Amino acid sequence: MNEVQGKLIGEQYVIKLSGHIDSGNASAVEKAVLELIGQEPGRAIHIDADQLDYISSAGLRVILHLRKTHPELVISNVKPDVYEIFEMTGFTQMMTIEKAYRVVSVEGCEEIGRGANGTIYRIDQDNVVKVYNNADALSEIQHEREVARTALVLGIPTAISYDVVRVGESYGSVFELLNAKSFSKLLETEPDKMDWCVREYVELLKRIHGTVVPEGELPDMKETVLKWAEFMKDHLPEKAGEKLLSMVKAVPYDDHMIHGDYHTKNVELVGDEVLLIDMDTLAVGHPVFELASMYNAFIGFSEMDHEIIKQFQGFDFETSKLFWNKVLALYLGTDDENTIRQVEDKARIVGYTRLIRRLIRRHGMETEEGRSQIEFWKSELLELLDRTDSLIFAKNELQLEATKENLQTVMDFVEINLEEACCPAKTQMQILMAVEEIFVNIANYAYAPGTGMAVVRVEVKRDPGVAMITFMDQGVPYDPLKKPDPDVALPAEEREIGGLGIFLVKKTMDEMTYEYKDAQNVLKIRKDF
Amino acid sequence: MEILTTKKDDVLTVSLTGRLDTTTSPQLDEELKKSLDGIRELTMDLEGLEYISSAGLRILLSTQKTMNQQGTMKLINVSSMVMDVFEVTGFSDILTIE
């Protein structure tokens, strides 16, 4: 009978109901359905109501009978009129009944973004749709909606989907994105905007990485990377595999947000606002994990075949490399090539681990091309593992409220940076003392009686060792160098309590400079070691 | 920071371990205020002191002033980092360091 058709899709048996089902044909429909599912005993069944125009109470009884033998029964693609019947009769509360989705075509639409699990197209002036790769993507869509909401609430500029639609055999979620232009498009069509893009891109990145996420709201990226490293143990020499795993294990838990797929197609210029899209990979974790996926997007994927980047991003490999280097330098706040390459090495270790695992799982070992690609990444990875001992790097700029309570945070931050540059213990102490004196001064006086923000930037170079620390605040202009030195020759009775801090800094540092610039006190100290 | 005090009649020994800085110096200040009364001989053992900043110096200076009124004060087992700070600030001339 033509009201009933059956089809096996994956593990599910799908029954397609069409036309009208009422007292006139209900028993025939039931008989036809039972015959069909009799051929597939034990399978879960799913009713596709895409073509169903009407169902009467006799038809509803058929559904009830079916549900007795198949309690997991789901009805989907229900037209609005039919959905109303299910709703009125209470069926929607009793079982899973899904409305039909609006159908959208992306034929001829411009592709504006592409992520790990879908592609984003512009469907009209104001709207874009993200089409998911996975045909059964409803749970992914739900997840992405939730994490996007989490991000928005925490202050990250992003778009939230307002509708779920069908696109061919897949699902899509629709976003409003007026006149948006991706950073990839900007880099491709307006190369003179490169430096502007770098600044905006890094600013948003720092904002993401500066966002603390309440525990449990987002997955921990470290757990994912641990799985990658576990996988690699079977594909690397034993020692290298163990080293990789222990390095990942040693990365401390970090409750700051990372995007997970932060390349230029996922950053959109909307008017004069910069928006982040494609939020499904949002997680918490150390920024090295973020830099790893960025390295892959800009370099790793297309390192052997430079054409790949052009297909994916629209700009060429040279542009990509230049952009990545500028971004990394600005993100790390340093021009020191050595420091930049060291952090890049750490990112590459995680990046290659991911690329190799991905390609092996996609049957890369079965083709000549795949094997040579895997071999290339593997040899790079082994070399990197040989010369790198840790995945952690210090973020070199701290922005925080200038209060005495924050002193310990500042000291720890400076200490990590000095430690990493192998600064001798005694010099570290002297520098830390200077940092304490200066920061406490800012905390006590810059914004008194209120408080305000301060920035502490640390730049450390090795061989020869130079530590440069910059303090910036927007408090009252104050040049500590103008303060007269205390008379250190006076006997105890005549010495005043206090006034020693800045004097100590002057005496123990190799250089100390002050300027008032852009409404900020900028105090720099330098110590050679 | 750890502060260990041993008192015998009017002789007090205070041993410091850790860092004497902005965060920890109020602790020492309070401890000394409590125990200096009637002390004629104060010894500060700085063997475990890794670090001192001006906040710490301030306390040493005020303690020295107090002890000038009622007895003597000396510092023992001073590390080279701490000693450098004393020298730069002229504290090595006003404190008794052994």
Principal-axes shape call of chain B: globular
Quantity of strands of chain B, as a count: 4
> What's the CATH class label of the largest domain in chain A?
Alpha Beta
**How many domain regions of chain A?**
4
Beta-strand proportion of chain A: 15-25%
CATH class of chain B: Alpha Beta
Largest sheet of chain A: 6 strands, mixed
CATH topology of chain B: Transcription Regulator spoIIAA
Give a description of the structure:
The complex is a heterodimer of chains A (529) and B (98). Chain A is elongated. Chain A has helices at 26-38, 57-69, 80-88, 91-94, 138-153, 183-189, 194-209, 221-232, 238-249, 287-298, 307-313, 317-332, 337-361, 368-387, 407-420, 425-446, 501-508; strands at residues 4-9, 12-21, 45-55, 74-78, 96-99, 102-103, 110-115, 118-122, 127-132, 163-167, 170-176, 180-182, 257-258, 267-270, 273-276, 283-284, 397-401, 453-461, 466-473, 511-517, 520-528. Chain A is an alpha+beta fold. In chain A, helix 8 packs antiparallel against helix 9 (238-249). Chain A folds into four domains: 4-100, Transcription Regulator spoIIAA; 110-180, Phosphorylase Kinase, domain 1; 186-387, Aminoglycoside phosphotransferase (APH), C-terminal lobe (Aminoglycoside 3'-phosphotransferase, Chain: A, domain 2, Alpha-Beta Complex), CATH 3.90.1200; 397-528, Heat Shock Protein 90. Chain A has a six-stranded mixed sheet, with helices on one face. A five-stranded mixed sheet of chain A has the order 1-2-3-4-5. Chain A is 43% helix and 23% strand. By secondary structure, chain B is an alpha/beta fold. Chain B has a single domain (2-94), classed as Transcription Regulator spoIIAA (2-Layer Sandwich), CATH 3.30.750.24. Helix content of chain B is 42%, strand content 35%. A four-stranded mixed sheet of chain B has the order 1-2-3-4. Chain B is globular and about 35 Å long. The A-B interface holds A 404, 407-408, 426, 429-430, 432-433, 436-437, 440, 488-493, 495, 497-498, 500-501, 503-504, 507-508 and B 21-23, 50-55, 57-58, 61-62, 64-65, 68, 80-81, 84-85, 88-90, 93-95.
